[in-house]
């Protein structure tokens, strides 16, 4: 102890208190990748903190879907300094649905395509004979009423495209 018995003092003295700071706990913060605080608490020095909230999440940005993997450092016994653990995520490309719709045949085919990939119709499209005409497939259009080709080389969202045919006399 740093206590002094002052009963034997026989002259005037000036005493100055001496303080020491001893930490008994440290602030532990669990944060999301964007800095949002998920959980924060004081934990006694020497104890191992525990994350007790729901698994961290990060919303899709349209290019990637994110999945929580771990914290940026191993969770160990608390020392005498505050500490922050930050969520780390793995990512994978978003998957989009491309629907090929053919009103002449009534066929509808859906395929799944990763973000930024090309969508390729998986089947052959035969010519259609109807009365005195033959309809030949020309391209996939952005709508069923416009003869504007759809760009299927870089898919970045769900999309429906429509078969566009040219008409010729059967011969």
Helical run tally? 0
Tally of strands: 9
Order of helices and strands: EEEEEEEEE
Structural class from helices and strands? mainly beta
Strand content: 35-45%
Supply database-style keywords.
171 residues; mainly beta; five-stranded mixed beta sheet; four-stranded mixed beta sheet; rod-shaped
Task: Write up what this structure looks like.
- The mean pLDDT is 92.
- The protein is rod-shaped and about 130 Å long.
- It is an all-beta fold.
- The strands form 2 sheets. It has a 5-stranded mixed β-sheet with strand order 6-5-9-8-7, with no helix packed on it.
- The protein has strands at 25-31, 37-44, 64-71, 83-93, 95-102, 107-114, 128-130, 133-141, 159-169.
- Helices cover 0% and strands 43% of the residues.
Task: Explain the layout of strands and helices.
Layout: E1 25-31, E2 37-44, E3 64-71, E4 83-93, E5 95-102, E6 107-114, E7 128-130, E8 133-141, E9 159-169
Parallel strand pairs: 1-4, 5-9
Antiparallel strand pairs: 1-2, 3-4, 5-6, 7-8, 8-9
Quick structural overview:
0% of the residues lie in helices and 43% in strands. The protein is an all-beta fold.
